[in-house]
Every structure is written in structure tokens, then in C-alpha cells.
# Entry
Amino acid sequence: MKAHFIEQQASRDLARRLLVRHLRVGPTVSLTGLSELEVRGFYRAIHGKGAVAGQYPLSYSLARSRPGQIKVSLFVWFYRVIGKEQVFRKVDPDALIKAYDFFHETTSQVFMAELNLTDAWVLARDMVTRSITIEECRVCRLHYAQIEYALVPPGCPFCVMRLRKRVTRTNATRVMAR
Ligand SMILES: [Zn+2]
# Structure
């Protein structure tokens, strides 16, 4: 009975940590095992209004361009480093929160690359089903996310962006030499 109570408290604490970061109700229910009714009540208590409804984003819609793929790649890599191999077996809520906070404290400020916690959860879930894989680039050796049905062609986004920059620079030099 006591163990059950402690478990319930831990689940409620986790729900609170997820909901203050604006995770939506469905993923919070799935990560905590609490009832939808209880999670909706927490959401209302924290945010002062009812939870939003509607579809979740799809991983490939978060990476419609190479910069988008870099954003996803950086988040996925932070999460993988923090959560270790476990992240390919199930979504790890503690690692998800840590990776999300780290992303917000660093990357999103530098690149203005927004990613909310529901987006982050979608990515983490798709790593378990392997519709997102982490590849190591043979050229630059960085790790990047390869997303099933992505709108960008397969390949390393870091190398593509670097090549684009080089082409722009070369063209600029040519114009200046005229
Ligand atoms: Zn590369």
C-alpha cells in the first residue's frame, strides 16, 4: 500500500514537471500512467485553462528543411547522450525533460530554433519505433537524425549547409573580382 502511494506521488510529480513545460495531456498520460481525467485536472490547475486538443505534429513535419533537420538532429542527439541506449527501447521522461531544458537553455537561444516539449516527445517516441534513426556522417563525423518520410533527401544536413555556404562564398568572390 505504501509502495503504491509513493509510486503515485512520483507519477504526479513527473506529471507536474511535464505539464509546466507544456506537454500535452495524451503524452503526459502515456508517460505517467495516470488517468486522463487526473492529468486534465493538473493541466487546468497549472495553466488556469483547459488543455488544447488536436493532432500531434509528425516528426517529418518538424524537419521540412535542412536547418529544421539540424534542429531535430541536435535535440535527438542531446536526448540520446543523456538517456543513453535506453532511449531506443522506451521514451525516458527524465532524459526527455533534461534534453528539452538543455536544448532551450542553449540551442534555441542561439539559433531561434523553437521546439516544444510535445514536439520533443514525438521525436523520442519515433526513436523507439525506429522511424527516426541516428546516423554518423562519413565525411564530417557528426551525428544527425534521419527521419522516415522526411521532405529533405537523405544525407547529412551539416555537410549540405556547409556546402551551400561555400557555394555562396565562391559566388560572392567571383562577383567582387569582376
Ligand atoms: Zn556531414
Notes: The helical segments are 2-19, 25-32, 36-47, 66-83, 93-105, 107-111, 117-128, 157-177. The chain has a mean pLDDT of 92.
